[in-house]
Amino acid sequence: ENSQAALEELATRDPLTDIYNRREFYRLLRLEIKRALRYGHNFSLILFDIDVFKDINDTYGHPVGDRVLTLIAELTTKEVRPGDVMARYGGDEFALILPETAIANALILAERIRKVISSNDIKVNPKQSVRLTLSIGVAEFPSDGRHEEDLIAKADAMLYAAKRQGGNRVCSADTR
């Protein structure tokens, strides 16, 4: 039984950051959509990534990049509620499912996460640290999409709108 639990943990967690992996994120997103439809609730989805992450990897190496990803996961996890779902969506991209959360409250959380990350200097070696910023896209179910693909596409489009505007910002359909 213990080894079964360990296997399930391995199958659902990102090995680097110890938050949910992409596959588990999709499973939980589908569950949240079903729950929201059944009970008539809304929820919000946040996608974010690290601005100029490629430069960090290229300049300081992948071990520093890995440390940055781990730190982002740790700092963000401290900002969310126990029922919220935090996942590593890919590379330097993260996702948050916020059950029963209207977009106005999701935008407040997204801005808080943006500020927390941008106010933390990350030591890359004993003499140097870097300041990180995030581009964040926020979408709400059902107004921004009633299916997982539509909702993700909207949050992703908002993330790229934030990037196009120079990064270090939060965008939603309401804020563009």
Walk me through the topology.
Elements: H1 2-12, H2 22-39, E1 43-50, H3 53-60, H4 62-79, E2 85-90, E3 93-99, H5 103-118, E4 121-125, E5 128-131, E6 134-141, H6 148-164, E7 169-172
Parallel strand pairs: 6-7
Antiparallel strand pairs: 1-3, 1-6, 2-3, 4-5
Helix pairs in contact: 3-4, 4-5
**Class by alpha and beta content:** alpha+beta
What is the level 1 CATH name? Alpha Beta
What is the approximate shape? globular
- The proportion of residues in beta strands is 15-25%
Residue share in helices?
Answer: 40-55%
Terminal Cα span: 50 Å
The oligomeric state of the chains shown is single chain
Question: Mind summarizing the main beta sheet?
Answer: 5 strands, mixed
How many structural domains in the coordinates?
1
Helical region count?
Answer: 6
The CATH superfamily bears the name Reverse transcriptase/Diguanylate cyclase domain
